[in-house]
Amino acid sequence: MRRLARLARPMAALPAACCAVPLPRTFCEAKKEQSLDQFLKSDKAQKWIELNSDKSQSCLVNTDTIDWIQTAAGGVRRKMIERLGGEVARATTVVSFEPNASFPSHRHEGGEEFIVLEGDWFDDWATQPSYTYVRNYIGSRHTPRIGPKGCTILVKLCQMSTEQTEPDHSQWDISSSNPSWRRSPNGRRELRVYESPFEEVHFERWEPHQTGQVEVDGAGEEVFVVEGSFVDELGEHRRWSWCRTAEARRLTRRAGPEGCLLYIKSRHLKSPEAQSRMKMLTKLQEEAVAVDFDDPYLQLDFPAASALPPPCISVIEAAFGYTSDRILYEGLDFGVDCDSRVAIVGPNGAGKSTFLKLLDGSLEPTKGFVRLSSYMDCTNAAMQHT
């Protein structure tokens, strides 16, 4: 299918010596959860942790199998889920804070995203009670303190992009009392909170024992169980579990007897991130071996380019017109990516408005198909110039 695809931004050139370094090893397999304590006590863990860090691998982590680990900051425990780096790292972590703790002001070099699971979180921006979703953009600062009941959060660090600016601070109420929850066509309740060309974040609430199919595209998906449980082909997802589905596939999920509330991030696994790329380049430079580029037998192997995610609008061998016997165009076969900007230009009577109706679903093609992503809503607005 021909695609109206966005152009990839060029990546800064790597130092020559980096080309011969293999990708870092990862500890992604769920079966290695039990050996996490031994790993964290090793010399390697003190310097550089690579835990579930390969974004091309699917995995499931039930945090109830992981022991809490005390941090250097007093009154703070954490369960590491995903980590790449040293003390400051690209990370996904469940963190527990003792009551009335306070911390110095700090800056978010790679951005911070968290869900308040229990208790209350306070900072310069606002009070964030339990069931609050927060995004603090790259370069933002705050001075956190904890309420009298303590606080537990799921936090994701250094996973935002400098190529998509955001407000320094945004937060959403994800409790069931929020009137923005909507019933989706698949029967689940959804709350959409954030979307950009690089990622999409929403929450889903499933009824007890509710079953449904989920389509994951090639750009991947992460799911964290805020409450309840469910099962699918990856296994049993208990409360506060996290999973990554790295490849395009169809999953059948069934909620547990209490239903479930899910945090879902998608379209992000192949997107640029502010800090993880910088840290990876630094790590590669530190571990790089010398390469003799004058060697006539030297061969450099580069990975294949990543495939584009599915288009948000797909037009497949379509034909349309004013009526079935007044066809304007036929044989239309193309796709439109989510961050594309497309101009439809032509004289009066060329069918521009009719074509827009075809794309927004208000006009059915006489032949072929027009498919819109399930994550997309279309509307049509007109402006008159005099």
TrEMBL record:
A Pfam family the protein falls into: ABC_tran
Protein's name in the database: ChrR-like cupin domain-containing protein
Keywords: Repeat
Disordered as annotated region, ranges: 166-186
Domain ChrR-like cupin: 57-160
Domain called ABC transporter: residue spans: 330-373
Gene3D superfamilies assigned to the protein according to its UniProt record, in alphabetical order: Jelly Rolls, P-loop containing nucleotide triphosphate hydrolases
Alphabetical list of InterPro entries matching this protein: ABC_transporter-like_ATP-bd (IPR003439), ABCF (IPR050611), ChrR-like_cupin_dom (IPR025979), P-loop_NTPase (IPR027417), RmlC-like_jellyroll (IPR014710), RmlC_Cupin_sf (IPR011051)
Domain of life: Eukaryota
Residue ranges crossing the lipid bilayer per the database entry: none
Organism name: Effrenium voratum
GO molecular function, one term: ATP binding
Compositional bias per record (Low complexity), positions renumbered to this chain: 175-184
